[in-house]
Amino acid sequence: MQLRYLFRVYPDTGQQRALAQAFGCARVVFNDAVRAREDARKAGAAFPTAAELSTRLITQAKQTTARSWLGEVSAVVLQQSLRDVETAYRNFFASLKGTRKGPRIGAPRFKSRKDTRQSIRFTANARWKITGSGRLNLPKIGAVKVKWSRTLPTTPTSVTVIKDAAGRFFASFVIDTDPQTDAGRMPDTDQTIGIDLGLTHFAVLSDGTKIDSPRFLRRAEKKLKKAQRELSRKRKGSKNREKGRLKVARAHVKVTDARHEFHHQLSTKLISENQGIAVEDLAVAGLARTRLAKSVHDAGWSSFVNMLQYKAERYGRTLVKIGRFTPTSQTCSTCGVKDGPKPLNIREWTCAACGAVHDRDHNAAKNVKTAAGLAVSACGAPVRPGAIPAQREETGSHGFPTEARAA
Fold first, then answer.
1. What is the 3-state secondary structure (H, E, C) of the chain?
2. pLDDT in tens, 91-116
3. Which pTM does this prediction carry?
4. Is 196 a catalytic residue?
5. Which is catalytic among the residues 32, 298, 339, 361?
6. Is 361 labeled as catalytic in the residue annotation?
7. In the annotation, is 207 catalytic?
8. Over the stretch 346-367, which tens digit does the pLDDT of each residue have?
9. Active-site hit among 84, 280, 313, 403
10. Which of the residues 92, 159, 246, 355 has an alpha carbon 20 to 30 A from that of 182?
């Protein structure tokens, strides 16, 4: 199983200039490759192969006056940029054919030098290394200071240097993990849990535990509004506007980082304490188009469930997603009678059949566990058929999935 470990890096002024040059060269090669394929499409010719693009856009381009500066950065960075183009087109065509999971994606577009997020990738043949003093030595950039927040479990296969919208630099290492070794790190347990995700509480567990919603975005709204208002008054293209943009971006990343850390800590705790976990397959995209959109985005349910999914696979746990149309809030968890839909303002209700009084979210969490087949009857047998281990979905191209700021 491949995972990413993210660490903050602190390049000095000279290294920042070298990284900016590498970002620019990688962007130019990417755009040249997209343009070459688009020209071939318009001419009705066959798409140039990766080898042809490498020869024309890198090897031969370095010998010209207009592109001679490509030789000032590592050739591996340029080759990886071509690989990104190939991957983008492969995903695009797979999406057109319907063989790629997830929403439909468009064709690759040209990158802009004004993009707030930039990255370059070094593979093993680039001869990058971690020095004895703990610095990351990158070809034609130098030894960059790294803030090591934890130890890498194995030797990385590649490293990606990222500059985010707030001007921060990160090193993202790709490592291969051993599932058996990872599973041995988790304590043995036979407990199972059902989770009902919501807005009043971020999560309510089938054992009655309620986890409050931190509402990171709501708490930071006043500061964000002030920073955005100041940015709107700056003249476009001025240095003060760039300073204002950075101020807004830094305010947003504080919210994002806090939410990400909360998700990591909670998902790790649940995975550590339970062998089986059941959640609802919520239609987050649909809920994000309602009047609750801001609160739904603030909660970040998709990010949390994705963390549960990959951690369950990594540590040998079981994650089950039940259908979003399962009437968990309408069914009595005691007698199983469906009592009909209820408005959101009703937080407690009494079952007309058996008279049991239910907390809405706690009752839903118990029904989620039962629907997933994790509930056990009085004789010790599962109420439903056994759970099926979740399959790992394709990792997205943006954000930091996997172990990017692990608890």
1. CEEEEEEEEECCHHHHHHHHHHHHHHHHHHHHHHHHHHHHHHHCCCCCCHHHHHHHHHHCHHHCCCCHHHHHCCHHHHHHHHHHHHHHHHHHHHHHHCCCCCCCCCCCCCCCCCCCCEEEEEEHHHCCEECCCCCEEECCCEEEEEECCCCCCCCCCEEEEEECCCCCEEEEEEEECCHHHHHHCCCCCCCEEEEEECCCEEEEECCCCEEECCCHHHHHHHHHHHHHHHHHCCCCCCHHHHHHHHHHHHHHHHHHHHHHHHHHHHHHHHHHHCCEEEEECCCHHHHCCCCCHHHHHHHCHHHHHHHHHHHHHHCCCEEEEECCCCCCCCECCCCCCECCCCCCCCCEEECCCCCCEEEHHHHHHHHHHHHCCCCECCCCCECCCCCCCCCCCCCCCCCCCCECCCC
2. 999 999 999 988 889 999 999 999 98
3. 0.85
4. yes
5. 361
6. yes
7. no
8. 889 888 888 889 999 999 999 9
9. 280
10. 159
